[in-house]
Amino acid sequence: MSTNRDGLDLLRRMRRNRATPAVRSLVRETILSRADLIQPLFVRAGEGGAEPVGSMPGVVRHTVATLVEECRKLEENGIPAVAIFPCIEGSKKDPLATHAHDSGNILFPAIRAMKSACPNLLVIADVALDPYTDHGHDGLLDQRGGVENDRTVEALCRLALSQAEAGADIVAPSDMMDGRVKAIRSALDAAGSHQIGILAYAAKYASAYYGPFRDAVKSARVDAPLDKRGYQMDPANVREALLEVKLDEQEGADMVMVKPAGAYLDVIRAVRETTLLPLAAYQVSGEYAQIHAAARLGWLDYASTRDESLLAIKRAGADMILTYFAAEVAPLLA
Ligand code: PBG
Description:
CATH architecture: Alpha-Beta Barrel
CATH class: Alpha Beta
Helix content: 25-40%
Number of strands: 10
CATH superfamily: Aldolase class I
Distance between the termini: 49 Å
Radius of gyration: 21 Å
Order of helices and strands: HEEEHEHEHEHEHHEHEHHEH
Largest sheet: 8 strands, parallel, barrel
Number of helices: 11
Strand order of the largest sheet: 1-4-5-6-7-8-9-10
CATH topology: TIM Barrel
Bound molecules: ligand PBG
């Protein structure tokens, strides 16, 4: 038996590599950088400045003027991309999402203003009808109240074309209709927009974590919570996510997404191991809200919980993260 003057006879002491900040930085396996981050932003029509979103501290509904200011700051802080969502007045919503295709839709001047102020900041436009429907669903309803796939895809193609025309760099279908990536790719190509990318919300789950977002875009229902299980994925499934990703790949997606992120780290990992495409993960509104809420109650430390939540998503395999924390964490990162 070997001798040991000071105690246990251990060949490997893991704590040697944890002893100082310097050695910890040498052995660190995952590094989050500002180049990984995408900031979701909300825009509304009208004047009067930014309007806070109650369930998302620090998040606002911008007017076009404050949106442009915010984009300038994000660009200065090294954030490469924003994802823009419109908040549409109730009086403009209808069952057919007519306002999606109206040239008066605030989304289009907002995209134009962002691109003219910050031409190098990528603008990702969400392709879905829920901001425009009075029932809050992502598509057009059939006789029985279900979302009709093929008619919805047609409307999504029209919306994506208008977004491209307004100057969006990437369109991101978040609706979960079948065949929409292929249809949008064909529509864009037919219009000569070969350069416009598609970020497919490939594995988007029917999640309770979207609650605060629905407040932000005012698509929440007071009478009954929205049930999107007829098109969004069952939280129980992971193989199905791989099939969704494969289909979106075959249909021509340039990037794929898993959403939400924090409760779906296993899905992020599984997708990372099966696709060669860049992978995005969306840390959604409820993930953001719960960290704020617990911190306000004094139950969690805000900054370290925030940072750990983002690092975990990167470690699981995401190449890029959509997060409402992007603007505030970017200055802290390399
Ligand atoms: C809708 C859409 C949703 C989100 C992004 N696009 C909500 C939903 O599907 O009901 C959620 C984002 C978030 O919660 O932060 N097409």
